[in-house]
Amino acid sequence: MPDRRDLDIGELMTAFDAVVRANASLMTQLSSRAGVHDTALRALVLVSDTGYSTPTEVAGFLGLTSGAVTNMIDRLTGAGLLERRPNPADRRGSLLALTPAGEDVVADLRERYAVVLRAVDAAHGRDLHPVLNDLATGLLDQAATAASDDADR
């Protein structure tokens, strides 16, 4: 008979996998609705979070090459979701900022998440915030450990 702790972690992994799949489904639907790839939607959210970003920052965040990010930025500017602005700190570089249409795309995404998070938080006694913070911290710690393991190889 399996240990109860094994069942608990299995159940947690199944639930977490369901959250990951549901999130991917929502991101796919919202990116399709905006006429962009999922990765481009993540770039728009990053630019929204920072107020502006450089192409290098976007590339690092998304794990893309500079060429891939340049192509994506070209598509997003062509779609009217993003604009390039001169970078006062680097004459050769640019800063990326959302256009009003880009802001609308990110606002739609945030509102859909807000609806779900408010409902789940209310259903669980308003205790979701610390749980999500702990989950994010744990995942970031594991990412750092994995990067360290790769560096040691």
At a glance:
With 153 residues, the chain is mostly helical. It contains 6 helices and 2 strands.
* Number of separate strands: 2
Helicity, as a percent range: over 70%
Mean pLDDT: 94
Sheet with most strands? 2 strands, antiparallel
- Radius of gyration, in Å, reads 19 Å
User: Shape, please?
Assistant: globular
Strand order of the largest sheet: 1-2
List unreliable stretches of 5+ residues. Answer: none
Q: What is the chain-wise order of helices and strands?
A: HHHHEEHH
Q: Characterize the quaternary organization of these chains.
A: single chain
List the total number of helices.
Answer: 6
Q: What class, by secondary structure content?
A: mainly alpha
Strand content: 5-15%
N/C terminus separation:
38 Å
Task: Describe what you observe in this structure.
There is one protein chain. The chain is mostly helical. Helix content is 75%, strand content 10%. It contains 6 helices and 2 strands. Strand 1 (82-87) and strand 2 form a beta hairpin. The longest helix is centred in the N-terminal third of the chain and has 31 residues, at 4-34.
